[in-house]
Amino acid sequence: MSSKQRTAILVAIDVLIVWISIYSSYLLRFGGNVPPLYYKQCMIYGLCSIAVCLLTAGYFKLYQRVWQYASIGELVAILAAVFITCLAATAVAGLLTGRSVPLSIVLRAYETILLLMGGVRFVWRVYRDRMYRIPTNKRKALIIGAGDCGTMIAKELKYNKGAQMYPVAFIDDDKTKHRKQIMGITVVGGREMVPQIVKEKGIHDIIIAMPSLSRKDIAGVIDICKSTGAKLKLIPKLGDLIDGKIAVKEIRDVDVEDLLGRDPIKVDLEGIANYVENKTVLVTGAGGSIGSELCRQVLPFRPSRLLLLGHGENSIYAIEMELRRTFPGAVLETIIADVQDRERMDDVFKTYRPDVVFHAAAHKHVPLMERNPAEAVKNNVFGTKNVADCADKYGTERFVMISTDKAVNPTSVMGTTKRIAEMYVQALNNQSETKFAAVRFGNVLGSRGSVIPHFKQQIAMGGPVTVTHPEMIRYFMTIPEAVQLVIQAGAFAEGGEVFVLDMGEPVKIVDLATDLIRLSGFEPNVDIQIQFTGMRPGEKLYEELLTSEEGLGSTKHNRIFIGHPVIMDRTELDFEMKKLEKVLTQGQEPIRALLKHIVPTFQSSNKQDQKELVTV
To answer: Is residue 139 a contact partner of residue 207, using CB atoms and an 8 Å limit?
Structure first.
């Protein structure tokens, strides 16, 4: 039935309702026999009521409302329309007939019109509710949160034919709502009831509809739900509720990031603006996970020019196109260059004279670098040296190097090369006008080559999910979270510091794999197997964030700490790096031996004898 046809039917029904209400009121008032004197008034009153009713119904949009979703707003509109109809029609009929309409007739007509007009419309909603019993072809959903957001989601799922889920129960911690019904759906209890309800009602999906809760609280709810075997979904943004955007498409799967329970980071916008605004900013490794996110988050602080430097043309092109769409007024320069090329770096700095440098270019894959130590040294050590020397030479104000927790008491070539890079920028800081600093953090969720995409791919293929060791733990942080803190740390830099980001509690990798399997709707070691493959070369069971000599200090930000600067002998370090440059062509063992000499805490996992240094 078309909209016009439905409107025409409603208009005809309303005309009939008004006429029946008026005529029956006169009949009841006069015992079934209306006197001729009042019969004329009855006709005039009825016609006036019909005319005014149609006008007021149009004004209150009673014919444009979707009555299957009728609620308090629709009830108020009917009350107002009928009240105005009776009041105006009574006055007009009295003027035209010269005789006031009896009060009993007016009250009875008002009651009858109100009951019939409201009844016809709400009967349709009751009919629709009865029609929408739990469909057998839809997945049963449990909604956690019986507030405004949960109610809107329940309504959407009940009446949207395209929805794949159907709500069968609410969970809410508010005890006053327990055993009450919302949208015909019972609030069965608090969050402790989730496992029981999932089992009793055969729930397929759990929807967490509490967008106002902190991420820490959300993580607690997820922790209860993830053992049920139901697939978890989330309404992530309070803004979507405020803006009225809640719909089926807003329901997303719960990601592992939601399990971290991190509250939103508050950034000191003024402090950041002071050192980025109207400055030329260079990001090396701009096509990588961290580098590209740095570009996204730096641009809102209005640098005069942003330089995107990277070795891979495809990744640089991709981030350039994205930034030009997102920030059409930004001044961008894309530079294809390798940080290992000292002359090219000198030319870049001479041409653009960057005020701020975020150095994110690095080789980061531990097992790969174990097999290719010369490349790790060339990129992570000498690449950093080239960029840092140019920053010093051309008067860069701040240089922020992205480091890793694997640089602390390293067991891998990659971690050792990053530690030497830290040592070099600290030593250079002692003789430079540039403020050099490093920011150290752990694993980044979702970055290229990280464990989460790898696990997701294995799950998509039906398993098994491979974990190196059952006791291996790591610190984790999301990419945007890490980058915000990196930019913030740059504002605190006075020179020579190693900033350490608060990574929260470390996570067992096997627990991460288990959670990810469950969040994908499978049972670990039943649907998807977990296999332990043994630790790879260069790995250790746990990571540290500080060396023993650094200590720990606080900053103005509660998520950023500072490792106190360690005094480095620039002359001695330069000498060791010249030796390191010479051994790059002499094979893996001389390289590892010299790395051990420069960083005594390096505990190589290589089984061959590495104690003797090669004469260079």
So the answer is: no
What HEC string does 421-482 produce?
HHHHHHHHHCCCCCEEEEEEECEEECCCCCHHHHHHHHHHCCCCEEECCCCCEECEEEHHHH
Q: Is 364 helix (H, G, I), strand (E, B) or coil?
A: coil
Spatial separation of the C-alpha atoms in residues 407 and 92, rounded to whole Å: 89
pLDDT digits (tens, 9 = 90+) for 501-559: 766 667 788 888 887 787 777 778 888 899 888 876 656 565 554 444 444 555 556 66
Q: Are 272 and 487 contacting, i.e. CB atoms less than 8 angstroms apart?
A: yes
The amino acid at residue 175 is K
Structure-token match 């490792």, residue found: 563
DSSP class of 404: E
Closest CA to 312 of 284, 351, 333: 284
Amino acid at 179: R
- Predicted local confidence at residue 67, as pLDDT: 58
Task: Kindly state the average pLDDT of the residues 60-70.
Answer: 66
249 given a catalytic annotation: no
- Written as one letter, the residue type at 362 is A
Record the tokens describing residue 163, joined without a space. Answer: 């929805």
Of 402 and 535, more confident: 402
Per-residue pLDDT at 610 exceeds 50: no
**424 contacts 381 by C-beta, under 8 angstroms:** yes
The helix (H) or strand (E) run that includes residue 7 is helix 3-29
Is residue 377 within 8 A of residue 580, CB to CB? The reply is yes
Residue 226 DSSP code: T
Q: How many residues does the chain have?
A: 616
Answer whether CATH 3.40.50.720 is correct for domain 139-255.
yes
Tokens encoding 395 = 């008067």
CA distance 249 to 499: 40
Coil, strand or helix: which one is 282?
strand
Structure confidence by residue, pLDDT tens digits, 441-498: 776 665 555 677 788 888 888 889 998 888 877 767 778 878 888 898 888 888 888 8
DSSP state of 380: I
User: Region 332-354: what's the mean pLDDT?
Assistant: 96
Look at 165-174, 242-251, 411-420 and tell me which has the smallest mean pLDDT. 242-251
**What single-letter DSSP state applies at residue 530?**
E
Crossing angle, helix 103-131 and helix 3-29, to 10 degrees?
140
Q: What is the pLDDT of residues 67-80, one digit of tens each?
A: 555 566 777 888 88
Peptide bond into 506 cis (omega under 30): no
74 in Cβ contact with 121 (< 8 Å): yes
- List 233, 364, 406, 418, catalytic entry: 406
Most confident of 99-103, 155-159, 380-384, 411-415: 380-384
Rounded to two decimals, the pTM is: 0.63
Cβ 170 vs Cβ 146: under 8 Å? yes
pLDDT, position 547: 44
Give the per-residue SS3 of 148-182.
Answer: HHHHHHHHHHHHCCCCCEEEEEEECCCHHHCCCEE
Higher-confidence residue of 119 and 169: namely: 169
> Which residues touch 375 (CB under 8 Å, ≥6 apart)?
363, 369
Distance from the first to the final alpha carbon of the chain: 89
Each domain of the chain, given as residue ranges in start order, spans 3-131, 139-255
